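Per reviewer request, we include the raw input and output of the structure prediction for the construct analysed in the revised manuscript.
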Amino acid sequence: MKWITREHPKIDRIACPWLIKRFIDTDAEIIYVPFDQVIAKAKELDAVPFDLPGVEYSHYEDQCTFDYFLKKHKLKDDALDRLATIIRGADTDRLDFAPQAAGLSAIFLGLSHNIKDDYELLEIGMKVYDGLYTWAKYLFNQKHTQAPVEQLLLDVYHKYLKTGKKKAPAWTKELREMIQDQMDTNMSISLRQASDELEINSAYLSREFSKYFDNLSFGDYIRKMRIDKAIALLEATTYSLTEIAYLTGFSDQSHFTRIFKKQTGESPSAYRKIATKGKKNTK
C-alpha cells in the first residue's frame, strides 16, 4: 500500500512511516510531496494521506498522528505507548510530557537541517526509532548514573540541596512580560520561541516552568491565557466565534470550541448567551 504526506518531515512524519512499516504494512511505500499536492497525488497514486488537516490519519484532540495510528490499528504495546508520549511531546512542543521529548526534537531538527533528501532522512529516522523502540521495550528502567560516586552525589542533592522553595529566577519575569505582550496578538508563542528569546535551554524551561506559573505546564498555561482572553472577548465584543478563535491563537473554530468547552464546561456560544442574559438581568 502507498502512504503519502507532506514533504520535509521531522518527528511525526518520520515516526508514522516507521510505525506503518514495522507494525502495519511491512511493504508500505512512503511518499513525500509538497503540502498543496498531497490530496491530488493521493487520488492519482491511490495512496493513503496522513498527517494533514482534514484527512483521517491526522492530529485529533490533543493527540498527534502517531497516536491516531495506534488507536485506529489497535496496537496494544507498552513500548509503543511510551514512544507515543515522547513523540507527542516533541511534535507538539510539549516537552514536559517525557524527559526524552526534548532530545527527540533536537535530533530531528538537526537531522532535517543537515539532510535535505526526505527519503534519506526517512532511512536514518527508521534507525533512530528502531533504537528508541528497543529502549522503550527493554531498557527504559536503566539509568545512566549507575556508578557509586554518581549515585552518592545524587543522594546528597536529593537529601540536602533539593529543599525549600526557590526564589523565582529572573527569566520568569521576562517570560511573564513576553506572554503578556502576546495578549494583544493571537497568542502564538511557543516554548521553543520563548526559550530562544530568553536564551534558555528549552528542556530546562519546560521542566522549571510549572514551579513559577500556577503549577501548570507551558502549554496548559498558554491555553489558560487563551481561554481567559476568549472569555473577555465573548463578554465584551460582538466578534464571531471564528474571529475570536483567530484572535486567541486557535487553529480554527472547532478547535477553539472543543478546548473552550473542555476548560469551562460550556461551548463558547452557550457561554456568550449566559453572559449576555446575565448583563440584561442586572440592568
